[in-house]
Amino acid sequence: MSKTKFVEFAGNGFWAYDVALGVFLKYVIDIAEASPKAGSVWLSKRIPGWRVVACISDFGLRLDENRTATQRQFFIAFAEEACARLALRESIPAEEMLAWNVLNGKGIFPRGAKEVQTGPVIELGRAIIALILGELPEPPEDTAWLYGWPEGRSTIGMIHGWRG
């Protein structure tokens, strides 16, 4: 089971630590479900997919699903609010993450960590926003960005020209 998932928008993307992405998406889901748009067809079709990505390591996050500019703006607003809420906490205990009902009664698997620091999760959320806005900086040659890792943003070596 991989510890990373690919986050993609418009043919560009980066790798994310699966635990951090799961935590971030849990916050996005909570915000989206509480929004006035919660009953919209677009959102009702996206939230189940976000739940799967948050909990199952086999799936990456494809943000091209937010097809219209309005849908992208709503997702960005949800992501910004998720970052703001995460910033109110220093960390999230593993017991809390496991107790969340993200997908069919299951929470986020912490991979043995006793807690998850929110700083790298926020950094991941901001990278997702930058990716959608076309503002994510290019990684060094033959590398890809890795966000959400407990030590913060880093790069991983890539075979030239390969994408997730």
The N- to C-terminal Cα distance equals 16 Å
Order of helices and strands: EEHHEHEHEHEE
Q: Identify low-pLDDT runs.
A: none
Strand content: 15-25%
Label the structural class.
alpha/beta
Overall radius of gyration: 15 Å
Gross morphology: globular
Relative helix content: 40-55%
Number of strands: 7
Mean pLDDT reading: 92
Query: What is the number of helical segments per DSSP (H or I, 4+ residues)?
Result: 5
Overall structural domain count: 1
| Sheet having the most strands | 5 strands, mixed
Strand order of the biggest β-sheet: 3-1-2-6-7
Short summary:
The protein has helices at residues 18-34, 41-55, 69-86, 94-99, 118-133, and strands at 4-9, 12-17, 61-62, 91-93, 115-117, 143-147, 154-157. With 164 residues, the protein is α/β, with parallel strands linked by helices. The two termini are 16 Å apart.
General description of the model:
The protein contains five helices and seven strands; from the N terminus they run E-E-H-H-E-H-E-H-E-H-E-E. The chain has 164 residues and is α/β, with parallel strands linked by helices. The chain has one domain. Strands 3-1-2-6-7 form a five-stranded mixed sheet. A hairpin with a 2-residue loop joins strand 1 and strand 2.
Observed structural traits:
single chain, 164 residues, alpha/beta, 18% strand
Fold blueprint:
Elements: E1 4-9, E2 12-17, H1 18-34, H2 41-55, E3 61-62, H3 69-86, E4 91-93, H4 94-99, E5 115-117, H5 118-133, E6 143-147, E7 154-157
Parallel strand pairs: 1-3, 2-6
Antiparallel strand pairs: 1-2, 4-5, 6-7
Helix pairs in contact: 1-2, 1-3, 1-5, 3-5
